[in-house]
Write a structure and sequence with these properties.
Blueprint lengths: L8 H9 L6 E6 L7 E9 L2 E9 L10 H10 L17 E3 L2 E7 L11 H18 L13 H11 L5 H18 L2 H4 L3 E4 L8 E4 L2 E5 L6 E4 H12 L9 H14 L4 H28 L10 H12 L11
Antiparallel strand pairs: 1-2, 2-3, 3-5, 4-5, 6-9, 7-8
Helix pairs in contact: 3-7, 3-8, 4-5, 4-9, 5-9, 5-10, 7-9, 9-10
């Protein structure tokens, strides 16, 4: 969510006028993320301050035309997401110098660096609620794009720059994951809308609990257990890349209480955790090849360690522990 495209005060004032918003005090770039330009905006009026988030889309979201209706739907269902503010013409999207923009209220809270069991429990509960709430919209959603073809194509592209040992690990993980995704029983796992990127930098907490979930730009139709695995890899991993069993079980139990996990999902969870880790390792390696002059990329070694951790020892999940 850090800024790529500069924003001038004149440009911002012109945009705010189309929302009938006045009293600009200050604006400043957000500092997390790598894909879009995000700015915090502070307005003053009637003795109170209002803060908004302006997102300038640097590329079309994976969610496509689903993004705004999905956020509207989740907001109406009471999920802690940032609703999209309409301008005075009723449009959800606007633009600055030809760049599409979205304006939303700034949610309260902070990102969590060292998750506790309680944090993991809250994430699991939110994810299950989101899956159930968003399920009716799955027929309109684009299919999650990081499938076996994406994996093979991206792995081939990054191989020339990979270390020899990394190349061996990548190929072994790719073979394992591809064999999973080619199975008909894996393809028939419960599915619907997935967030696809429920990392710590996309979730906010206050002292009262989970206060907001951000960045639905990667939302798509996919297997729900994959979405759970994406979250588990980030919220529950330790320094050597393995998963902390207590945190994983906290996340899964809270999810299971809202949407009971089916037995095949539990069987496939270890390999989906490897799949999710491989996706983000490859995407970060790909990012190194295309990083711009500001070095806008994330370290792929974090997910190399997680892939290695899964290949060394799959996370054994005893269904009896969910109750």
């Amino acid at each position: 969510m850090t800024a790529i495209t500069p924003l001038t005060e004149n440009d911002l004032e012109a945009l705010l006028s189309r929302y009938s918003l006045t009293g600009l005090q200050r604006f400043w770039p957000a500092t997390n993320g790598i894909e879009n330009s995000n700015y915090f905006i502070r307005l003053a009026g009637d003795g109170e301050c209002q803060e908004l988030v302006l997102t300038m889309l640097e590329r079309p979201p994976h969610a496509g035309d689903l993004l705004v209706p999905l956020l509207d739907h989740c907001d109406a269902a009471g999920l802690p997401i940032a609703r999209v503010v309409r301008n005075r013409f009723g449009d959800a999207n606007d633009e600055i110098n030809g760049k599409p923009t979205i304006l939303s209220p700034r949610l309260c809270g902070q990102h969590i660096l060292n998750p506790t069991l309680r944090h993991c429990e809250s994430v699991g509960q939110f994810l299950a609620r989101f899956h159930l709430v968003a399920k009716p919209m799955a027929v309109e959603a684009p299919v999650y794009p990081r499938d076996t073809r994406w994996l093979a194509r991206t792995a081939e592209a990054v191989q020339p720059n990979a270390r020899f040992a990394d190349g061996e690990l990548l190929n072994a993980a790719l073979t394992t994951v591809t064999s999973l995704l080619d199975r008909s029983d894996a393809a028939n796992l419960p599915h619907g809308i997935i967030h696809g990127d429920l990392f710590r930098d996309n979730v906010l907490f206050t002292e009262r609990g989970l206060s907001g979930v951000l960045d639905f730009h990667h939302a798509a139709a996919g297997s729900w257990i994959y979405d759970v695995a994406v979250a588990a890899n980030d919220w529950c991993s330790v320094g050597d890349g393995t998963l902390d069993s207590e945190r994983v079980m906290s996340l899964l139990r809270s999810y299971h209480r809202v949407r009971p996990l089916q037995l095949p999902e539990l069987w496939f969870f270890p390999v989906f955790a490897l799949y999710a880790a491989l996706v983000f390792w490859l995407s970060r390696l790909e990012g190194l090849r295309s990083a711009d002059e500001r070095g806008r990329t994330k370290n792929p070694d974090e997910f190399r360690r997680i892939v290695q951790g899964h290949m060394n020892r799959f996370f054994y999940l005893d269904p009896r522990l969910l109750h």
